[in-house]
Design a protein that fits this description.
448 residues, disordered C terminus, mainly alpha
Length: 448
Amino acid sequence: MSVPAPEAPPGQPQKAATAAWIGSALEYYDFFIYGSAAALIFPKVFFDESDPATATLLSLATFGVAYAARPVGALFLGHFGDRVGRKKIMVFTLILMGVSTFLIGCLPTRAQVGGLAPVLLVACRVLQGISAAGEQASANSMTLEHAPPHRRGFFTSFTLSGTQGGQLLATLVFIPVAALPEDQLLSWGWRVPFWMSIAVAVVGYVIRRKLTETPAFAAQQATGEVVRLPLAVLLREHWADVLRVIAAALVASVSTIFTVWALAYATSDSVGMSRSSMLWVSALANAVALAAIPLWATLSDRVGRRPVFLIGAAGSAVTMFLYLWAISTGSYPLVLVLGIVTFGVVYSAANGVWPSFYGEMFTTRVRLSGMAIGTQIGFAVAGFAVTFAAQIAGPDGDDWFSVALFTAALCVPPVIAAFTARETAKVPTERLGERDAPEAPQRETVTA
């Protein structure tokens, strides 16, 4: 049985949630500006020797490279997060992301150094992926273990609200950049958002160094319960939950298709929408998501994680058909409304609840490893979903129906995973991950 953890000091749950929000926003600002650049800029800067369709395919493949690196990063960062604590990993990942993103803005183009340019781009993207592998898992573990037992869904959702905030900020930064004249955009304009990321390392360090370690992890350290090989314990005692998280994490394909492939499709010659108008769709959808995520998470504290997650996964499979159809019509008002509904409202149900849903499957001893490894393998598939979508869309890149069908198929494993998972919303924090833990004890009175 897990060691009972003392209550968090007054105000600490709020501090942990705020640090998770700000840190994730800064971290994922870096991560998502790459997505916009991969769809709009990099085909002309790093892959300009190819025809436009091939250049776009190669550029989107570099977007997926980070997702391939994330499972490797998850193995190492998950291990050390469960060995030395959540706080150290949160600081390390933020600094690594800031530095690697800044370096992307300094890279020479293919016209300047030839084939070395895309190689350097991929190397920096790998570092971004390693950083992202530990960011969400460490921030989620930190907030979950600090949160009052009956509000874990709400507090852990701050990590994903921060992710959406970072995506919103990245989109807003790219709107004026994308409006620059073509020659300025391709020479120096695209570099500015990447250079701005150097502030990530400074701000992230200041914010996160003041956090205290979680009561649950501190209790394990005090009693010698910290395991030497978290991965071995994870695979021995929680292998089914790891597989369940991998399957559930495929729902992230909705996000990558929405933010990257749909953007490239809408601005292609076959549709002809402007870069700025489509970036505004993404910005407004993310703004709505900022409000929707904590609301869905709060609902999950009342009715459970599984029903809310199922709404997001199954609903996204349907609404992505409507969104991509709207793009094919070229009707901007229709694209705007359905973009907000798809990504801002429906997908936010799954996005807002998964931090608590996944984290509650594991004990404190292996929580960070379980979340990191499970999510990052699933996210790796989601990252390359963009590349597969570009191939599925055909030589002209306009077969939106096949892409929508592909996205819906990727939502099936998350639905199955949710149906087979235990409901954990009302389980006491110290009993999470135990096979004999009660599923619905009386609500505990805890002062946040």
